Amino acid sequence: MAKIVLLSASIRQGRNSHRVALYFKNYIESNQLADVEMVDLDIYDFPLFEERLRFLKNPSEKILDFAAKIREAEGVLLVTPEYNGGYPASLKNVIDLLYDEWRKKPIALATASAGNFGGAQVMTSLVFSLWKIGSILVPAMFPVAKVQEAFNEQGEPLDKAQTDKRAHTFVSELLWFIEAKKRMHN
């Protein structure tokens, strides 16, 4: 089974995008699609990094733990909110912290917003940053509009059947790219 890190990017109080991350954790586990580990940036409580990991003189155990999780994952399902058309500083902070760990890593993007566009605007800047460091961007998207209405705080969707149908296509694409990358390395 593929090993996926589910990265929940928001650290705000009352964060709604985390509902989507909880949904995906449950969806992947209950359908036995992959081994999935939630990596919640809110729990890490990272400082603002002044340098990439490889140049830090004494990285903390938290930093090394985070880097190892990303490095060991075969793919990343990244869930991010849209803040004023961009992605949160907490996510930019960890993208810039690592380099080799992101390189050639299949990454699927799920976006969320309180408005009608489902975080579509965040894609431009986030896709560019991930492309620039050499990630493999999965061409499927999972935008969630009015996230506070679409999912409850436990990550349960209002319309389970439709959400599961969309999730199936989205997660299948990530798994395809993980398998393709494995085959390229043989």
From TrEMBL:
Entry-linked InterPro entries: Flavoprotein-like_sf (IPR029039), FMN_Rdtase-like_dom (IPR005025), NAD(P)H-dep_reductase (IPR050712)
GO molecular function, one term: oxidoreductase activity
Pfam families linked to this entry: FMN_red (PF03358)
The organism's place on the tree of life at top rank: Bacteria
Top EC category: oxidoreductase
EC number: 1.-.-.-
Keywords noted in UniProt: Oxidoreductase
Chain ranges of the NADPH-dependent FMN reductase-like domain: 3-145
Signal peptide (UniProt feature, chain positions): none
Protein name: NADPH-dependent FMN reductase
